[in-house]
Amino acid sequence: MKLYEFVAKQLFRKYGIATPEGEVADTPESAAQIAGRLGRAVIKAQVLTGGRGKAGGIAPVTQSNALETAKRILGMSIRGLQVRKLLVEEDKSPEKELYLGITIDRGKRRPVLIASRLGGVDIEEAARKAPGSIIRTHIDPLAGLFDYQVRTVSRRLGTDVGDVAFRLYRLFIERDCTLAEINPLGVVADGSLCALDAKITVDDSALFRQPFMEEESGSPEAIAKKHGMSYVALDGNIGCIVNGAGLAMASMDLIKGFGGEPANFMDVRGGAGAEDVADALSIVTSNPNVRAVLVNIFGGITRCDEIAVGIRDFRRRMDIRLPVVVRLTGTGEAEARRLLLSTGVIAADSSEDGARQVVALAHQP
Amino acid sequence: MKLYEFVAKQLFRKYGIATPEGEVADTPESAAQIAGRLGRAVIKAQVLTGGRGKAGGIAPVTQSNALETAKRILGMSIRGLQVRKLLVEEDKSPEKELYLGITIDRGKRRPVLIASRLGGVDIEEAARKAPGSIIRTHIDPLAGLFDYQVRTVSRRLGTDVGDVAFRLYRLFIERDCTLAEINPLGVVADGSLCALDAKITVDDSALFRQPFMEEESGSPEAIAKKHGMSYVALDGNIGCIVNGAGLAMASMDLIKGFGGEPANFMDVRGGAGAEDVADALSIVTSNPNVRAVLVNIFGGITRCDEIAVGIRDFRRRMDIRLPVVVRLTGTGEAEARRLLLSTGVIAADSSEDGARQVVALAHQP
Amino acid sequence: MAQGRWWLLLISRDTRVIVQGMTGKAGSFQARQMLEFGTNIVAGVSPGRGGEEVHGVPVFDSVEEGVAETGADASVIFVPARSAADALFEADDAGIGLVVCITEGVPVKDTMRVCRYFEGRARLIGPNCPGITVPGECKIGIMPNGIHLPGRVGVVSRSGTLTYELVELLTRNGIGQSTSIGIGGDPVPGMSFLDALSLFEKDEKTDAVLLVGEIGGTSEEDAAGFIHKMSKPVIAYVVGITAPPEKTMGHAGAIISGRSGTAQDKIYALEKGGAMIASGPGDVVEKVKRTLAKN
Amino acid sequence: MAQGRWWLLLISRDTRVIVQGMTGKAGSFQARQMLEFGTNIVAGVSPGRGGEEVHGVPVFDSVEEGVAETGADASVIFVPARSAADALFEADDAGIGLVVCITEGVPVKDTMRVCRYFEGRARLIGPNCPGITVPGECKIGIMPNGIHLPGRVGVVSRSGTLTYELVELLTRNGIGQSTSIGIGGDPVPGMSFLDALSLFEKDEKTDAVLLVGEIGGTSEEDAAGFIHKMSKPVIAYVVGITAPPEKTMGHAGAIISGRSGTAQDKIYALEKGGAMIASGPGDVVEKVKRTLAKN
Question: Which CATH architecture does the domain made up of A21-90 adopt?
Answer without folding.
Answer: 2-Layer Sandwich (3.30)
